[in-house]
Write a structure and sequence with these properties.
Strand content: under 5%
Oligomer: single chain
Distance between the termini: 28 Å
Number of domains: 1
Order of helices and strands: HHHHHHHHHHHHHH
Largest sheet: none
Structural class: mainly alpha
Radius of gyration: 23 Å
Length: 309
């Protein structure tokens, strides 16, 4: 199968599963709307702010430090897209779980098997849609949403003591987009074994694919704890679920009452930890890819003879 035919299969996935495209857009629109409402831009463009001594000192330092402004700008613009990403991950979970199940349930698999499309191409197109096409779409939607929210905030803080928050840093913004694309690519690699497992369950389950997806791991965890009094499987799955968000940190952690310089240092530390590139040096990434390959190969083989649900 050539690239054009494969892309046609990917387009088919987006046509048949509109939520993959619309959920990120609707989520982003709600965030922009919430920004408009919370800042009351329609009522008043200018913002009058009375800062306490510590806050005034912080924004005074920030106004004089372009590098710190750029770092805070990058953290803010990077984190604002997190709700879109989280909601999309939930949508992708159910998409992958449904991808090879529904075609057997509604018997459309018989039609697709009559077409000159291999099982490999079908399964891989669904995996590509979830792990490449949708993440790129999320990045594009988040990019537009970030710019819109920035304009709203910039208009609001203009002329106020917190005006440095409204400065646009082009170089930092361009670098951020590359970092976000890199992080999304690494997220796809990191969560590949979960995607492979969901596809395998999707092609295997005759009914209740959600239960097939969650009960076997849960039972293994339960039996391990009862029989061996250990939690290796639970720790392994937990590490797979949350470690990506630990590697690509966007949270600024400061204690209450921290001084202005401490806050600036925390901003610098968070900025340096925004990239998830550290995952490339972890064995868990590559072992997970090997497991994902096994799951996907099994899903392809099972689809060749499973045509009922």
């Amino acid at each position: 199968m050539n690239a054009k035919s494969f892309l046609t299969l990917v387009k088919r996935e987006t046509w048949e599963h509109r939520s993959l495209l619309w959920v990120p857009v609707v989520t982003a629109a709600l965030i922009v709307l919430a920004t408009i409402i919370s800042t009351n831009v329609a009522g008043s463009i200018r913002l009058d702010v009375d800062l306490d001594v510590e806050s005034a000192a912080f924004f005074g330092l920030l106004a004089a430090d372009q590098m710190a402004q750029a770092k805070l700008f990058s953290i803010w613009m990077g984190s604002i897209g997190l709700p879109v990403l989280v909601v999309t991950i939930i949508v992708l979970f159910f998409y992958l779980l449904d991808a090879l199940y529904i075609e057997r349930k509604d018997r459309s698999i018989l039609f697709w098997k009559s077409m000159p499309v291999s099982d490999s191409a079908t399964v891989l197109s669904k995996l590509f849609t979830a792990m490449v096409a949708v993440p790129v779409w999320v990045w594009a939607v988040s990019l537009v949403m970030g710019l819109l929210t920035f304009v709203i905030i910039a208009l609001k803080v203009s002329g106020s003591p917190i005006a440095p928050l409204g400065n646009f840093h082009l170089t930092a913004w361009l670098a951020l987009q590359l970092t976000l694309l890199q992080n999304l690519f690494l997220a796809s690699l990191w969560y590949a074994p979960i995607a492979g497992w969901l596809l395998l369950v999707s092609v295997w389950a005759k009914r209740a694919p959600f239960l097939w997806a969650v009960l076997p791991p849960a039972l293994v965890i339960l039996f391990e704890e009862i029989i061996f009094n250990t939690e290796y499987v639970a720790q392994l799955i937990g590490h797979r679920l949350i470690h990506y968000f630990e590697a690509a940190s966007l949270g600024i952690n400061v204690e209450t009452g921290a001084g202005p310089q401490v806050i600036l240092d925390s901003i610098a530390n968070t900025y340096n930890e925004m990239s998830a590139a550290s995952l490339l040096g972890e064995l868990h990434l590559y072992s997970g890819l090997a497991v994902a390959a096994i799951f996907v190969l099994l899903a392809i083989r099972l689809r060749r003879w499973r045509d009922d649900a």
